[in-house]
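hey m, so remember when u said the tokens were messed up on ur end? i reran from scratch. heres the input so u can diff it against urs
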Amino acid sequence: MKAGQIISLVDELKENDINDEAKLFWLNEVEGRVNTEIFKRNPGEIRELVSLDDELSIPMPYSRMYVLYLHAMIAFWEGNYDAYFTVISEFEKTVSEYSRYLINAR
């Protein structure tokens, strides 16, 4: 899935005024976290997303973690902290599910 597809989906699901550059920054945070915490890569080895056409590394159905993270960050910056804590909790569950999937797939 491409970064632009996630951003378009988030914009469809939740009206917001956050620009694509900020959303791409947040997608890079997710990529960095997954790559360092789950794949145990060094930060210098992680390819940074620079374009909406860049491919994300997490496959379906776990790619929903990107949508959840963007939704949470939008809620945070809008000052909707109840929504932020609800959605970030779902994001963390998805990260855990993906970790378990990778462990069981080995």
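this time it looks ok to me. Residues 58 and 96 are 13 Å apart (CA to CA). if urs says something different then somethings off w ur setup not the seq
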